[in-house]
Amino acid sequence: MVKGLRAQGMRAFQIVKATGICRARVDQWLRLSECPPLRSKKAPRPGMAEYLREELRLLWDEGWQNGTKLLDEIRKLGYTGSYSSLLRFLQPWREEKRTAKRIEVAATQPAQGLYPSISVMRHVSPQEAAIALSKPKSMLNKRQCEIVELLKRTPAFATMRHLILTFRSILRNGTVSRLKYWIKKAEGAGIAAISKFIRQLKRDLEAVANAVAYRWSNGPVEGQINRLKMVKRQMYGRAGFELLRSRILPLAV
Fold first, then answer.
1. What is the pLDDT of residues 87-106, one digit of tens each?
2. Which of 74, 137, 155, 156 has the greatest count of CB atoms below 10 A from its CB?
3. What is the SS3 assignment for 8?
4. Which tens digit of pLDDT belongs to each residue from 168-179?
5. pTM score > 0.70 for this model?
């Protein structure tokens, strides 16, 4: 497959983006004239997934690609392994399916575009996704804007981003009435992560409402507590009250 993509004119880094294979392995395979030899394996034990490879592959090609349903089916054929072992066995086939789909998408992209959509979809980290959800466009860089535009095609992401940005604005310049309205609206969105957040928020709703209504914050207090802990750690936790006091409080004049 790698050789075939190279023959179509794709460069090594483009093959990495299209297939998800690491760069070192792509470079190694491009230098080879034939497929590398397979490593020797132990003979599979009866009842294991490897022992039933042919039957599993036949079921997989027929459309039995749901792990739970496939497990029930191969139990009838004598499979004695666990569900997690079956999933590990199926992982290469799932990767093969995803790779084929990425290559199909790559083939429809113009050569000068260098497959930007594949790059974005492949390399979105949890941190980047959190930024895409919680920051307005004016605070995003070019790549983050591309991620937002790509993920906004999913209605759930667009709804979640709108709710999070609204909550952000309420915390900065909102009112308690707006907060209560937002909670009702968010509960009706039907997004599991948002619903879980609201359940936690309601446990200390009074504190959240005070954070919206007043400009005061316990941030300075938390900062002093962290400073005190740091000083204590510097002395391996053995500082007494008088020593801590002399290091934290200014000397009396």
1. 888 888 888 877 777 766 66
2. 74
3. coil
4. 999 888 889 999
5. no
